[in-house]
């Protein structure tokens, strides 16, 4: 039996929260250095979880912004050969390509992680009929296939133009803005 009281939280939990706070407020100029610092933490799983959460937050904000590309390159250099973080960043880049109607392949979509397929089938920013049809037919899970089918049906009901996206701040589903000029 351990001498430690059961109500004390492990030190890595405190560091995790501190890392999240620091990453949330970091300036773009200091971001890469802070991510590198976090990744040097002795508890690799906790460090990668904190960085992954940061990547998700930052990528979702920058997704259609021109700054995404430079940010992605700087994060790629920092995360190095960490397979999970590398894959997640690559999948955010794929989601960006789909959202901006840039080139992507069916293989990239069908071999992507369950997380990516769930995100792409549910994200309002993904309106590509080709993507949704591919996920409805060949998505890895029933959840993904059903979500993609529902999105296709919704788009047909709303008659959304192919290059429109539902803006996340719009109060109703039918309000859109064109993706041109992003």
Q: How many helical stretches?
A: 9
Which sheet architecture does the biggest sheet show?
Answer: 2 strands, antiparallel
Uncertain segments: 165-182
What is the SS-derived class?
A: mainly alpha
Mean of the pLDDT scores? 88
* Backbone CA Rg: 19 Å
- Alpha carbon gap, first and last residue: 59 Å
Shape: globular
Question: Percent range for helical residues?
Answer: 55-70%
The strand line-up of the biggest sheet is 1-2
Q: Please write the string of helix (H) and strand (E) elements.
A: HHHHHHHHHEE
Instruction: Compute the number of strand runs.
Output: 2
Q: What fraction strand?
A: under 5%
Task: Give your account of this protein's structure.
The chain is 64% helix and 3% strand. By secondary structure, the chain is mainly alpha-helical. A two-stranded antiparallel ribbon has the order 1-2. The longest helix is centred in the N-terminal third of the chain and has 19 residues, at 44-62. Mean pLDDT is 88; it is low at 165-182.
What can be said about this structure in brief?
The protein is mainly alpha-helical.
Essential attributes:
182 residues; mainly alpha; two-stranded antiparallel sheet; 9 helices
Question: Topology of this protein?
Answer:
Layout: H1 11-25, H2 28-39, H3 44-62, H4 67-79, H5 83-99, H6 106-110, H7 114-122, H8 129-138, H9 142-158, E1 164-166, E2 176-178
Antiparallel strand pairs: 1-2
């Amino acid at each position: 039996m351990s001498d430690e009281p059961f109500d004390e939280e492990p030190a890595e939990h405190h560091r995790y929260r501190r890392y999240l706070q620091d990453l949330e407020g970091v300036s773009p100029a200091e971001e890469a250095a802070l991510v590198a610092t976090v990744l040097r933490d002795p508890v690799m799983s906790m460090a990668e979880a904190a960085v992954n959460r940061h990547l998700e937050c930052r990528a979702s904000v920058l997704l259609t912004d021109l700054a995404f590309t430079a940010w992605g390159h700087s994060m790629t250099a920092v995360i190095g050969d960490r397979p999970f973080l590398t894959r997640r960043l690559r999948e955010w880049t794929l989601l960006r390509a789909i959202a901006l109607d840039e080139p992507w392949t069916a293989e990239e979509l069908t071999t992507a992680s369950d997380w990516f397929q769930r995100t792409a089938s549910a994200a309002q920013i993904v309106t590509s009929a080709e993507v949704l049809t591919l996920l409805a037919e060949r998505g890895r899970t029933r959840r993904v296939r059903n979500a993609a089918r529902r999105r296709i049906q919704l788009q047909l009901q709303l008659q959304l133009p192919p290059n429109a996206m539902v803006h996340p701040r719009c109060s109703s589903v039918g309000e859109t803005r064109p993706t041109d000029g992003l």
